[in-house]
Amino acid sequence: MEQQLNIWLSGISNLGFPVIITLYLLMRFEKKIDLLTEVINKLIEVSKKK
User: Helices (DSSP H) in the chain: which residue ranges?
Assistant: First the structure.
């Protein structure tokens, strides 16, 4: 049982940092994608008026 716990803890410690960085980057990209979507929608509205 203790050996399995050590394996799990080792896996979490090895993968923890990359997971945190990935989540951080995904949240940043999400904000940028939302902004791009908003700008594209405004461009579509402007192009329809012409």
Answer: 2-49
